[in-house]
Amino acid sequence: MNSELIVALRNAEDIAWKAMGKPTDDSAEKTHKAIADALRLAEKLAAAPRCEASSCDNAIEYSGIGRHRRFCSDRCRKAAHRANRQH
Fold it and tell me: Which residues, in sequence order, are CB contacts of 58 under 8 Å at separation 6+?
């Protein structure tokens, strides 16, 4: 995950929070909540382990069962295996 995205989301959250002031409706609060949720998701994805395939940068979520996965898909696992056999 790009750290620039996280910085941008933090800035947007701060601006939305300051802009709320005394809103007449709940749209400002909803906007702030949406930005804060996006920031939490971006931080979670940034901390997640990445696929070990050289051509892939997908995050891998742990299912909570068994050992942690090394690759995001069978396609990446097979591609990495083929690349290792050639070297």
Answer: 50, 51, 72, 73, 76
